[in-house]
Amino acid sequence: AQKITQTQPGMFVQEKEAVTLDCTYDTSDQSYGLFWYKQPSSGEMIFLIYQGSYDEQNATEGRYSLNFQKARKSANLVISASQLGDSAMYFCAMREGLWSGGSNYKLTFGKGTLLTVNP
Amino acid sequence: DSGVTQTPKHLITATGQRVTLRCSPRSGDLSVYWYQQSLDQGLQFLIQYYNGEERAKGNILERFSAQQFPDLHSELNLSSLELGDSALYFCASSYRTSGPQGQFFGPGTRLTVL
């Protein structure tokens, strides 16, 4: 089974509107972290936002917020007031486990959602 | 700019050849991760080093190897290259725990095997 599922291969949004990108995850760990990254056409991976499994409040970073629903194992990214520069591929990722002096902190990525912002 | 540097940005080579990709982590970061991004496999974790020691292996082929040096820079060596090794190779770094800051990715090295 996939650990990170992004069901929307592509999404379109009008400039200045809000958009939600879906992400569901699968883990048996109690401690984990969820991340969103943006990959523009230039190729770099840009870290956007992080949510820890024990965080009670939804994470926010400027126009980005993470709608974390632990019981449903979902971690949707909400982008408010979309801008043309938001057009990019967006990846949801998960890190499982607790830090214990060097344990594996690899990220498992979903397949991504290509967001297009229309003027 | 994430603070992670990777060289070269682009690499074109032939099947059967060997190449070395280089990564310098952010200042102070002890962990280095290598990822491969291809159209068919998506983003996949290859290997992690922490303060010079290998910590975890993912879907890394036996033809691939890596190391982290005392100055914490890392190199990914790809040998006996095949057409299917063409991909974007990312290096990422973090201090100890990935915590709220996540892993910071370099700009990537785009490898084309002809």
List the helices and strands and how they pair.
The complex is a heterodimer of chains A (119) and B (114).
Chain A: E1 4-5, E2 10-14, E3 19-21, E4 24-25, E5 32-39, E6 46-52, E7 60-61, E8 64-69, E9 74-79, E10 88-96, E11 108-109, E12 113-118
Parallel strand pairs in A: 2-12
Antiparallel strand pairs in A: 1-4, 3-9, 5-6, 5-10, 7-8, 8-9, 10-11, 10-12
Chain B: E1 5-7, E2 10-13, E3 19-24, E4 31-38, E5 42-50, E6 53-57, E7 64-68, E8 74-78, E9 87-94, E10 104-105, E11 109-113
Parallel strand pairs in B: 2-11
Antiparallel strand pairs in B: 1-3, 3-8, 4-5, 4-9, 5-6, 7-8, 9-10, 9-11
Encode the helix/strand succession of chain A as letters.
EEEEEEEEEEEE
Q: Output the helix-strand order of chain B.
A: EEEEEEEEEEE
Task: Compute the average pLDDT of chain A.
Answer: 91
Poorly predicted segments of chain A: none
Q: How many E strands of chain B?
A: 11
Q: Uncertain segments of chain B of ≥5 residues (pLDDT<50)? A: none
Quick check: average pLDDT of chain B?
A: 91
> Helical region count of chain B?
0
Termini separation of chain B comes to 31 Å
Oligomeric state? heterodimer
Give the overall silhouette of chain A.
globular
Number of helix segments of chain A? Answer: 0
Largest interface: A-B, 25 and 33 residues
Proportion in helices of chain B:
under 10%
Q: For the record, give the distance between the C-alpha atoms at the N and C termini of chain A, rounded to a whole number.
A: 38 Å
Strand content of chain B: over 45%
Q: Structural class per helix/strand content of chain A? A: mainly beta
The biggest beta sheet of chain A reads:
6 strands, mixed
Q: Profile the largest sheet of chain B.
A: 7 strands, mixed
User: What's the Cα radius of gyration of chain A?
Assistant: 14 Å
What is the alpha-carbon Rg of chain B in Å? 13 Å
